[in-house]
Protein: DUF1571 domain-containing protein
Amino acid sequence: MPIPRVCVASTNAATFLPPSNESSPDPIILAQQHFEYIESYQVKIISKSALGENNVIRYSYRKPGYVRMDFTEPHPGAVLVYNPTSGTVRLWPFGLHQLPVLNLSPANSLIRDQNGHRVDQSDVGTLLRNIRNLQQGGETTIVGKEILQGQPVLHVSVNGPAGFTVSDVHRSELWLENSHHFPIKVVSYGIDGHVIESVFMDAIVFNIQFPDNFFTP
Structure:
């Protein structure tokens, strides 16, 4: 796996202030607090499902929910864009501005992966909210500080209550980087204890200034 790299690309430092409650004992709450101050981010996602499906995607996000995915695997060149204003997804299966172009609902099975993930629920903010739901009545363990591919991280384990899942996930293992408590590795487990998916995030850029038409090509 490539070494996860994190950088900040905010052009206006006054708009990017860290949360004041750095002493919060709950790293998930702290991660959510930091995410509130992130207006946009771009990351390379490398994921592997329990069925062996690999995905490599350049994932771009801008609040309040714009998403763009540029695929390397398994559909090289494909581009998918979600517009929260219209609530629709545009998909270019063979490359941006190449025919055909499909206009779809985010619930369409054609653009949901093997785990049922939807593009409009794919950002880190949604991930952290789901994990917070697992915490309610469950158990959160701070495993400890570790080094992941040469980078210091905090390893956190969250187990949901007995018999409880959120989007089929019963347990999440997260590795949070130090600067923004952003997850750079997440492993999800089902209620049977088997791995559902492993996700690595590389080359993260925060508060990136996207071109005007980046999410409306």
User: Anything to note?
Assistant: Confidence is low (pLDDT under 50) at residues 1-21. The domain at 6-206 is CATH 2.50.20.10 (outer membrane lipoprotein receptor (LolB), chain A). The chain has two helices and twelve strands. The longest strand covers residues 195-206.
